């Protein structure tokens, strides 16, 4: 909920760009904030998973390796999305007026419309199974 609201506010007002002196500096600051909040979210998720009882059916090597495979596939989608979009493309640069020259159609966007979202979902699903 946080970063889409901040990005829309920036798009309407350009306030962050003025405060930081440039749209690039403002976008990098928002990206760093998003990354820190992601660390908090991951920590909270890990603590929640540790406190939950395990299902007997998932307490086996098969479930662990399935979770690991799903986590690995998700990680590939997240990292390849980031590499295809770059930092400003990943962290809402378009709201700061930083546009890419062309639409990205290479992998992973050739496979999925929203590979960053699907990849993140797969990471957390795999983590939960593990």
Automatic annotation (TrEMBL):
<feature type="transmembrane region" description="Helical">
    <location>
        <begin position="20"/>
        <end position="41"/>
    </location>
</feature>
<comment type="pathway">
    <text>Lipid metabolism.</text>
</comment>
<dbReference type="GO" id="GO:0004608">
    <property type="term" value="F:phosphatidylethanolamine N-methyltransferase activity"/>
</dbReference>
<keyword id="KW-0812">Transmembrane</keyword>
<keyword id="KW-0444">Lipid biosynthesis</keyword>
<keyword id="KW-0472">Membrane</keyword>
<comment type="pathway">
    <text>Phospholipid metabolism; phosphatidylcholine biosynthesis.</text>
</comment>
<dbReference type="GO" id="GO:0000773">
    <property type="term" value="F:phosphatidyl-N-methylethanolamine N-methyltransferase activity"/>
</dbReference>
<dbReference type="InterPro" id="IPR007318">
    <property type="entry name" value="Phopholipid_MeTrfase"/>
</dbReference>
<keyword id="KW-0256">Endoplasmic reticulum</keyword>
<keyword id="KW-1208">Phospholipid metabolism</keyword>
<dbReference type="Pfam" id="PF04191">
    <property type="entry name" value="PEMT"/>
</dbReference>
<keyword id="KW-1133">Transmembrane helix</keyword>
<keyword id="KW-0443">Lipid metabolism</keyword>
<feature type="transmembrane region" description="Helical">
    <location>
        <begin position="62"/>
        <end position="87"/>
    </location>
</feature>
<keyword id="KW-0808">Transferase</keyword>
<keyword id="KW-0949">S-adenosyl-L-methionine</keyword>
<dbReference type="InterPro" id="IPR024960">
    <property type="entry name" value="PEMT/MFAP"/>
</dbReference>
<keyword id="KW-0489">Methyltransferase</keyword>
<dbReference type="GO" id="GO:0032259">
    <property type="term" value="P:methylation"/>
</dbReference>
<keyword id="KW-0594">Phospholipid biosynthesis</keyword>
<dbReference type="GO" id="GO:0005789">
    <property type="term" value="C:endoplasmic reticulum membrane"/>
</dbReference>
<protein>
    <recommendedName>
        <fullName>phosphatidyl-N-methylethanolamine N-methyltransferase</fullName>
        <ecNumber>2.1.1.71</ecNumber>
    </recommendedName>
</protein>
<dbReference type="GO" id="GO:0006656">
    <property type="term" value="P:phosphatidylcholine biosynthetic process"/>
</dbReference>
């Amino acid at each position: 909920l946080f970063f889409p609201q901040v990005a829309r506010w920036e798009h309407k007002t350009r306030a962050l760009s003025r405060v930081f002196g440039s749209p690039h500096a403002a976008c990098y600051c928002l990206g760093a904030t998003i990354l820190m909040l992601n660390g908090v979210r991951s920590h909270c998720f890990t603590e929640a998973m540790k406190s939950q009882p395990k299902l007997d059916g998932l307490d086996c090597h098969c479930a662990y390796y399935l979770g690991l495979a799903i986590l690995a596939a998700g990680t590939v989608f997240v990292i390849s999305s980031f590499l295809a979009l770059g930092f400003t493309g990943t962290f809402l640069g378009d709201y700061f007026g930083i546009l890419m020259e062309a639409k990205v159609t290479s992998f992973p966007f050739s496979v999925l419309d929203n590979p960053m979202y699907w990849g993140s979902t797969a990471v957390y699903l795999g983590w939960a199974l593990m």
